[in-house]
Amino acid sequence: MKKILSLLLCLAMLLTLGLTAMGQAEDGGELRVSLCIAETLGDLGFYDSANEGLKRLEADYGVIGSVVECKSDASMYQVALVEAAEQSDVVVAVGWQFWDGLTAVVPEMPDTKFIFVDNGLDGVGDNLMSITYAENEGSFLAGYVAMKLAQSGVVGVIGGENSDTINNFVVGYKQGALYANPEGTVLDPVYTDDYEAPDKGKEAALSLYSQGADVVYAVAGKTGLGVFEAAQEQGKYAVGVDSDQKYINPDVIICSMLKRVGDSVYDVISNYLEDSVFEGGTIWNADMSSGLVGLGYGDDTMTQQVSDELKAEVEALAEKIIAGEIVVESTR
């Protein structure tokens, strides 16, 4: 009996040591991860997805996580990166706004690992890894579904700003919509120049619905929440973005274009913890074949406007995109 108890105690100690090591930094302490976001949490999409990935790392690996919200304050971007790097082993910068700050900070802080989410920054340092996403490919599918459900043959899109990143959503959406109905109409995009203003999103959506759009794609962060309000008021439809947003209003959100930011952040850091692998100096383009880009329809408890037949069409289109049979336009 004593031998059995001794063996069990040894196994327990080994298991504990293994689990502890999984969450350790190179210096033997617990890995500290800071999430720097350009705006604020609460968008129920892009930023919240990144934070969800961090929370999973805390739960699964015991990392010590922290979040810095820059609240669209340009003077904060570089300062936030420096302060986060001084306190953390890994800094995850979420948003194109950190481009200049990372260019300046990364070479000066070689002992900190940086992950740049949603943009590809090359030649800055071996301690920086960038993650880009083929949102144009996912948006192609979103446009296809939107046009298929638009009885008027008219759809629209709202962007947070007129930029290459946002327009990468727009061109894919337009291409997919016209693939579904070459005679259909994709209204000119409306840019709100604000990612934090649901009231502006609602106003922009109402203008598109008044022009005959049956479906509006919201690519505007927290501003997009106002699009869903407008859709509810007008008895129209909307398309969510970045996360599966259908739960927000299942009656009007027909689907969401998924860009699984949280999953990608989780994968990169968990790989580093488990295998000591960090692909610094590289740009990872998460296209449709990665499984990180696609469409979400909520779950079976929610109203499903998209039929099983249409979902099957979408899957077939996704396979064609992966195979290169359909080449989706891009602004990147």
Describe the structure.
The protein has 332 residues and is an alpha/beta fold. The protein contains 10 helices and 13 strands. α4 links the parallel β3 and β4. α3 crosses α4 and α5 runs antiparallel to α10. The chain is globular and about 55 Å long. The termini are far apart.
Compact overview of the structure:
With 332 residues, the protein is of the alpha/beta class. Helices cover 42% and strands 19% of the residues.
Descriptive tags:
alpha/beta; 10 helices; globular; 6-stranded parallel β-sheet; 332 residues; 7-stranded mixed β-sheet
Radius of gyration (Å): 22 Å
CA-CA gap between termini:
66 Å
Strand content: 15-25%
Backbone shape:
globular
Number of helical segments?
Answer: 10
| Topology pattern, helix = H, strand = E | HEHEHEHEEHEHEEHEHEEHEEH
Look at the helices and sheets and give the structural class.
Answer: alpha/beta
**What is the arithmetic mean of pLDDT?**
91
Residues in helix, %: 40-55%
Give start-end ranges of low-pLDDT stretches: 1-22
Q: How is the main sheet built?
A: 7 strands, mixed
The count of DSSP E runs of length 2 or more, i.e. the number of strands, is: 13
Indicate the topology.
Blueprint: H1 2-22, E1 32-37, H2 46-61, E2 64-69, H3 77-87, E3 90-94, H4 99-105, E4 113-117, E5 128-133, H5 135-149, E6 154-159, H6 164-180, E7 185-186, E8 190-191, H7 198-210, E9 215-219, H8 225-234, E10 237-242, E11 253-259, H9 261-275, E12 283-286, E13 293-296, H10 308-323
Parallel strand pairs: 1-2, 1-3, 3-4, 4-5, 5-12, 6-7, 6-8, 6-9, 9-10, 10-11
Antiparallel strand pairs: 11-13
Helix pairs in contact: 2-9, 3-4, 5-6, 5-10, 7-8
